[in-house]
Design brief:
The protein is an alpha+beta fold. The chain is 19% helix and 24% strand. It has a 7-stranded mixed sheet. A 3-stranded antiparallel sheet has the order 12-6-14. The protein has a 3-stranded antiparallel sheet with strand order 8-7-11. Bound molecules: succinic acid (SIN).
Length: 287
């Protein structure tokens, strides 16, 4: 049996591709997840109808890409607030004027970057993030793409036996893994425990909720017992068919759902600068 014996055919329903609200156009990126949204000016306040349509699009496509936006810090914070309260990272300083805006900055000659490991944001907190909005300020001439993976599909493509096994397990998460590059996280809580499979509070679908950046082990198991399960999941959950890849342009913004996706920043732009602003929406306790 292969993973795909258990996977229903991927599809984006017609309603999402050609929404009848006429507010914006939607172009799916891959059969896995992601969509380009055209026709929305995110610098303007969003009315309730637009907010609700964007939220539906997020629930359906999991990662929404908007191009050519012109956002200052006030507009980005207001946009994030349209979808919930914003997280202020206790370990990574935000903009002085807008602490909710985390700068993801890589200088030309910097090697240690926030890159190179799949994760979902803030899983080291009791209430991990609902979603994040990442805005491209300065991008390298090539490279620096962000990849996204669909954790519903990762879960649904497992065998019923494996799903039943994982359903009963809980992962241990921590921000600080002991690497020098994570020094900013040294004060983070020692350990937070979340179900390895969470139920999305809005869609009711189950998704894998475990990531190679912040998950350190499985509650009640030795590290030797947990390692092969986690290693399998880390390989399985990022199969190309579950992913999409976003090539940034200046002014692009991606809004993703942290409850059912993971992302990976590619560290493949030596000698170039990359600057992104991120606002992170607070979420619920996973169940
Ligand atoms: C992040 O992990 O939130 C940042 C992703 C990126 O810089 O592409």
């Amino acid at each position: 049996m292969t993973a795909f014996d258990y996977l229903p055919p991927l599809s984006h329903d017609d309603q999402a591709i050609a929404p009848d609200h006429g507010l914006f156009a939607v172009q799916p990126l891959t059969g896995g997840l992601g969509a380009e949204i055209d026709g929305v000016d995110l610098a303007k306040p969003l009315d309730d109808e637009m907010k609700s349509a964007l939220r539906q699009a997020l629930l359906h496509h999991l990662a929404l890409v908007f191009r050519d936006q012109r956002l200052g810090p006030d507009e980005l914070v207001a946009l994030g607030h349209a979808f919930g309260d914003l997280h202020v990272n206790p370990f990574v300083a935000g903009l002085e004027s807008h602490p909710e805006i985390m700068q993801i900055r890589s200088e030309e000659n910097e090697e240690a970057r926030f890159a190179g490991r799949w994760h979902s944001d803030i899983t080291w907190e009791e209430r991990p993030s609902l979603g994040s909005l990442l805005y491209a300020k300065t991008i390298p001439p090539y490279g620096g793409d962000t990849l996204f993976a669909n954790m519903y599909l990762a879960y649904e493509s497992l065998s019923p036996t494996m799903r039943r096994t994982l359903d009963g397990l809980r992962g241990e998460h921590t921000a600080f893994q002991g690497h020098a590059r994570d020094a900013a996280f040294a004060e983070a809580p020692e350990k937070v425990v979340h179900p390895l499979v969470r139920t999305h509070p809005e869609t009711g679908r189950k998704a894998l909720f475990v990531n190679e950046y912040f998950t350190r082990g499985i509650d009640g198991m030795t590290s030797d017992e947990a390692a092969p399960i986690l290693d399998f999941l880390y390989r399985h959950m990022v199969r190309p068919e579950f992913t999409c890849r976003v090539r940034w342009g200046e002014g692009a913004l991606v809004f993703w759902d942290n409850r059912c996706t993971q992302h990976y920043a590619a560290n493949d732009y030596p000698g170039s600068k990359r600057l992104m602003w991120r606002v992170t929406i607070n979420g619920d306790k996973p169940y």
